[in-house]
Amino acid sequence: MSAALSLLAMVALAYVAGSFPTSIIIGKLFFHKDIRAEGSGNAGGTNSFRVFGWKAGLAVVVVDVGKGALAALLISRLGAPSGLPVEALRLLGGLAAVVGHVWTVFAGFRGGKGVATAAGALIAAAPLPAAGAGLVFALVLFTTGIVSLGSIAAACAFPAWILLLGLAGLPVSPVLLGFGLLLAPLIAFTHRANIGRLRRGEEKRFENLRLFKKRS
Asked: Residue 108's CB: how many other CB atoms inside 10 A?
């Protein structure tokens, strides 16, 4: 098999790994429900928290993060004969996993929003800016209680962290920056319904996560 065909096969494998429908399987196995017919109808971690509780929701998030990390790490090893840099291979595998999660082949191409899977890929490929984006997510989540807002903010913050680290004297990877600039609009796209609800003031909150609550 040529290097190009081998790389294509690895990308397909990363897509399949990302397609694993965690929330759908957990919902049907343990709760006898289809997550896509419950709550917001999204097959992701946030809806799993709301519908099935924190234990099931946490399990979904952990597996989905693992999917992204596994795809990024595996393709960087198996795709070495292609001659591409390790970082580029990891990001390519991560992107394929995110696409698989959002448009899963195992559930009619209707999956989640890709945040946890993207986080796993970024942790594997670029842990420092990924940690910065995670900090932004936590700050927004614990301030507002809105997961979607934290997810969008983190996706936008990731390329900003890369530039900040560059200003601090660390090397800036054009490949990584390009990936970050591609990821932000993708996450915004998958959250387009949430953005509409945010504009209307209708987006649901996890009130118990808010550190600063309004006094009635």
From this structure: 10
